[in-house]
Amino acid sequence: MNQQVRVIRGWEWARPVRPVRREVLEAVPALDEGRPPLLFVPGFGHGAWAFAEHWLGHTVERGFSGYALSLRGQSGSGPAPEATLRAYVHDVVQVASGLPRRAVLVGHGAGALVVAHALARYPARAAALVAPVLGGWATAFTALRHNPLGTLPALVGGRLRCNHAQLFGPELPRDEARRHLSRLGRPARRAQWQLLFGREPEPAVGDPPVLVLGSPEDRVVPRSALTRAARRYASAPLLFPGMGHDLMLDAGWWEPIDAILDWLEKEPSGG
Amino acid sequence: MTTSIDHGRPDPEPSTLDRNCAGRSVSDRGETVCVIGAGPSGLTAIKNVTEHGFGVDCYERETGVGGVWNWRHDRSPVYASTHLISSRPLTQFPDFPMPDDWPDYPHHRQLLSYLERYADHFDLRRHVWFGTEVVRVEPVDGDRWDVTTRSTGGYGPERTSRYAAVVVANGHNWSSKLPDYEGLAEFRGDVMHASAYQDPAQLRGRRVLVVGAGNTGCDIAAEAAQQAAHCWHSTRRGYWYAPKYLLGRPADQLNDLLLALRLPRRLRQWLLHRLLRLSVGDLTRFGLPQPDHRMLETHPIVNSQLVYYLSHGRVTPVPDAVRFHPDSVELADGRQIDPELVVFATGYLPRFEFLDPKILGDDGMTGRPALWLNAFVPNHPTLAVAGLVQPDSGIFPLSHWQTVLFARLLRLRETRPSKAAAFAATVSARAGERYAGPVKESSRHWFEVGHADYLRVLQRALHDLEAK
Ligand SMILES: Cc1cc2nc3c(=O)[nH]c(=O)nc-3n(C[C@H](O)[C@H](O)[C@H](O)COP(=O)(O)OP(=O)(O)OC[C@H]3O[C@@H](n4cnc5c(N)ncnc54)[C@H](O)[C@@H]3O)c2cc1C
Ligand SMILES: NC(=O)c1ccc[n+]([C@@H]2O[C@H](COP(=O)([O-])OP(=O)(O)OC[C@H]3O[C@@H](n4cnc5c(N)ncnc54)[C@H](OP(=O)(O)O)[C@@H]3O)[C@@H](O)[C@H]2O)c1
After folding, report:
1. Smallest CA separation from ligand 2 atom 9, residue
2. Interface contacts A/B by beta carbons within 8 Å
3. CB under 6 Å to ligand 2: residues?
4. pLDDT tens figures, A79-107
5. Which tens digits make up the pLDDT trace of B399-446?
């Protein structure tokens, strides 16, 4: 990780990211007990819906408020075929800073990369990186190995497609998996490219605690990548064997979210 | 008790009682840091210092956060129509952006709501005692500080607390600079400083003279053009009047594009001169004097309306006023004009009345402290000033990084004293350093900074602190 703080961002100041309509689904407990809100950030192809399915409801049942964002170009947010990673990070920071309190950022898949970048631009209370796709060649190779037909076009600027076996474990009923797959959208080409070759995230501001979660059977993120990601934040990954890449949709979805909320309750700065 | 309409914090619990040399009792606040003022600079100081693990007590003499931008405050200099002159990306805090669907140049009420959200989001109000004024800040042994406060307005007893460090964030736009003229006392018309100007109704139907062409003077002249019976605008030199948009983008963003391209200052000045010539034209045709300096050598004026009203003949440019008569004002060119209202938009002066000027290196009592990065004080490693800058951008980002740097420094004093000592040596060696090219001598320009030059030095200082 690049360890130096960046103060000067002339290009960004001179060329601000354009605003866009952003879909934010929310679930807020009737009684606010002052806990930090969670902001869920989906990865490529997904949208806020992926968290609305189970995790938002579960979060609110446990007394936390939950917000799920669709990045620009994803499901209910405004179209943005030319979206860049920078624009995605902008979307996350915009929504996070609009919440009533310092938020916990939870990113899934490539959304975890967006979160890792957002942590350098917003002093989050804490962050959870779920099955994080942090980019680089290893990501491309793993995807190629498990889904060559879906991945190859992406490497030459085409569309990235994920298949059933990459995203879900064997226990999720077929028709449910099919329903989710049919909702997957098309990631923006430039952002997809920046995932592989973009810059390392800058150091997080405000020193937030970071939790990494994943599955050893994930066919998008190899086990070694999980360990590497966790090491970056000086911890070890929490593992949920038997699940696929989409921990928030797969059978057993409550285990990872419970783990995140338990962790937040224990964290001195959380709960 | 706080006289607060805001939910500030309750009175401090003194941890230990001590007596200072004058025999007053002092409550020792341990490692807590004191922040003076809860304007934008004070708020970001609270946030960044607490983020580095220190306790903070902030004193604010008004009843709410926001400083200048809180129009409810008696001392707030904003008028009903105030909009930013620095555009959003160059004004917002770097880690808490304004909503991206706000206009490029938001209104002052939006600024207040932004600052209130910042305070709530980071839970800063619990550190603030509102309605409490700092009257004295004195150094004591061990680089600690005795801070004496009382209720605003001078009611109630004084109390003194001892702090590990102090951030002075008292702002520099509240103490009016009022020039004196021969005969001013006998002048029969109304006279006011721009800080008392709130609403165009004050100008309606009257013959108005506006003195000064900072951004305030230009804003008020443009309003007088629409409301007053007549408007004279008196300036003591020619200026570059930059519009809010150049080449289809906010002017400061264009400047930053040129900066990002690393164009040298001279070339930037030349380009900006050409651009203004091509888009706004030669202003001497409206009777304005030729600028006596290049662009970027006075604090930028950003105003698209003034030139428009000059072109309508709704504003009459006039030279400096030299003398007042009971019924008229005499100008430098010998002309006499007969305004009913004179608005002095002659700016403000920084004031630190609670501090011995010598502490800030102002031995000659000139009102110009000698600091490094306009913030760090030689021989006083636990004192910093935030927001004492007049940048060609917004102030908030500069205050943010100043206080981040100060908070890191305070941490390093504990963990790596050698680093902190090296920093202190730099402060002494480089106090008084400037971060702008040549500027016109004026009471307002000694703390003018180019934000890019300034932040580059600050970034370097941060990296040096963090280096192994
Ligand atoms: C009309 C106008 C327009 C402006 N437009 C812009 C712009 O477009 N962009 C920009 O960046 N800046 C602008 N400014 C500059 C403005 O000063 C800064 O934006 C900003 O408010 C500076 O923040 P601050 O916290 O340093 O000072 P302030 O906002 O002045 O806050 C200082 C606070 O300290 C408190 N205080 C002072 N002394 C004491 C004491 N002894 N004890 C306790 N509390 C004390 C005050 O009550 C106040 O709340 C403008 C200023 C004016 C007047
Ligand atoms: N819309 C906005 O966002 C906005 C509006 C107003 C103010 N501001 C900011 O607020 C700050 C203060 O601005 P300001 O306009 O109030 O003050 P200012 O920038 O200090 O301008 C004062 C003006 O008065 C002149 N002047 C000073 N003393 C004088 C004297 N004795 N006789 C004649 N003229 C004299 C100055 O001339 P010289 O050129 O000789 O110095 C200058 O033109 C600035 O940072 C400004 O950018 C922003």
Report:
1. B215
2. 80
3. B 82-85, 173, 177, 179, 194, 211-217, 219, 236-237, 298-299, 320, 345-348, 390, 442, 444
4. 998 899 999 999 999 999 999 999 999 99
5. 999 999 999 999 999 999 999 999 999 999 999 999 999 999 999 999
Is the model's pLDDT at B114 over the cut of 50?
Answer: yes
Which of A10, A94, A102 is opposite residue B122, by nearest beta carbon? A102
Mean pLDDT of A197-216: 93
CATH of residue A197: 3.40.50.1820
Reading the block at residue A66, the tokens are 């939950």
| SS3 state of residue B459 | helix
User: What is the topology classification, in CATH, of domain B184-243+280-344?
Assistant: FAD/NAD(P)-binding domain (3.50.50)
| Tens of pLDDT, residues B207-228 | 999 999 999 999 999 999 999 9
Report, as an integer, the average pLDDT of B217-243: 97
Ligand 1 centroid – CA B125 distance (Å): 17
Which one of 3.90.1150.10, 3.40.50.2300, 3.50.50.60, 2.40.160.20 gives the CATH number of domain B14-175+349-466?
3.50.50.60
Please give the C-alpha separations between residue B122 and each of A264, B49, B88, B127, B306, in angstroms, as whole numbers.
Answer: 18, 12, 20, 11, 39
Q: In terms of C-beta density within 10 A (0-12 exposed, 13-18 middle, 19 or more buried), how is residue A156 classed?
A: exposed
Tell whether ligand 1 has an atom less than 6 A from the beta carbon of residue B400: no
Among residues A59, A48, A55, the alpha carbon closest in space to that of A24 is found at A48
If residue B325 lies in a helix (H) or strand (E), which one and from where to where?
Answer: strand B321-325
Chain B residues lying within 8 Å of A207, measured CB to CB: 51
What pLDDT does B204 receive? 98
